[in-house]
Amino acid sequence: MFRFLVLLLLLSSPLQRASAQYLEEGEVIATLARLFDGMRAGDSAAVRSVFHPEARLQSAFVSREGRPVLATQEIGKFIGAVGTPHDEVWDEKIWTYDIRIDGNLATVWTDYTFYRGEEMSHCGVNAFQLFKDEQGWKIIQITDTRRRSGCITSVVDEKVAINQLLDNWHRAAANADEDTFFGSMTIDAVYLGTDAAEYWRRDEMRKWAQPYFDRETAWAFKPKSRHIYMSSNGKLAWFDELLDTWMGDCRGSGVLVKTPDGWKLKHYNLAVTVPNDLMDQYIELLKAKPSKE
């Protein structure tokens, strides 16, 4: 019974920790939601409730003269401005959340676009710091950046963008489009081939594959199915796919990262699939393989 209880604790503790983490993240997001809901409603009392008494606001931006500026605004003036009647709704749209929590300290990085009514004012990122006291999570610091270009104006379906990148990547190999193929990978990307010795860094692979890309077709892999998974902050994705190749069905899997230039492949693993009922024959073939020695 003692061994069973120890095993149960070992198995359940990670799940309990993960559940607690999700609950804390939900509470942090709820605090930020009350801030933005209060701004939209012009409710200064609701906005005041989410701030710690010692909180401060700062903005980091570049002036029209090209000078870097760090501006500080008093919390009271900001709350007062929210509660002062204005014709346009102050709508700060949040597109992503990147949350880190340790004990009673949390940091949150968000992409935002700020609207006055229907008109976009500016965009940037918010860097929040929050402290958890007896009353819950309170904002102790907001530092934002501000710009008017490159703003997000609608929710992007990242899985559509990733599917497009991967389809174009395979198509580039089929069309011997070297620049598109290797340009879709990060500079430190890793490609694992079907041979155990095939561990390639991007530029190593480019040098090895040059004779193939000098032809009309380097290789032609056609995706048959694909599953894509996203990290909570929307900056990392991983996938698996089934490919129709000259070797038969192959399995591809990999990791992508969101860069300023869009999604890029950081890791790819290509594997030959072997039907279970042919596994014994496959093992015998490997045993019969001549030694390189």
Please render the helix and strand layout as text.
Layout (H helix, E strand, L loop, with lengths): L1 H40 L2 H6 L1 E12 L5 E6 L1 H9 L6 E5 L3 E5 L2 E12 L2 E15 L2 E10 L12 H17 L3 H6 L1 E8 L6 E3 H12 L8 E9 L5 E10 L2 E12 L2 E11 L6 H9 L6
What portion of residues is helical? 25-40%
Instruction: State mean pLDDT (0 to 100 scale).
Output: 91
Tally of discrete structural domains: 2
> What is the H/E string?
HHEEHEEEEEHHEEHEEEEH
Q: Alpha-carbon distance between the termini?
A: 54 Å
**So, CATH architecture of the largest domain?**
Roll
- What's the count of strands? 13
Q: Tell me the fraction of residues in β-strands, as a range.
A: 35-45%
Description:
Helix content is 34%, strand content 40%. The chain is an alpha+beta fold. It folds into two domains: 144 residues, Roll (Nuclear Transport Factor 2, Chain: A); 130 residues, Nuclear Transport Factor 2, Chain: A, CATH 3.10.450.50. The strands form two sheets. Strands 1, 2, 3, 4, 5, 6 and 7 form a seven-stranded mixed β-sheet that branches. A six-stranded mixed β-sheet has the order 9-8-13-12-11-10. The chain is elongated and about 80 Å long. The termini are far apart. About 3% of the residues have low confidence.
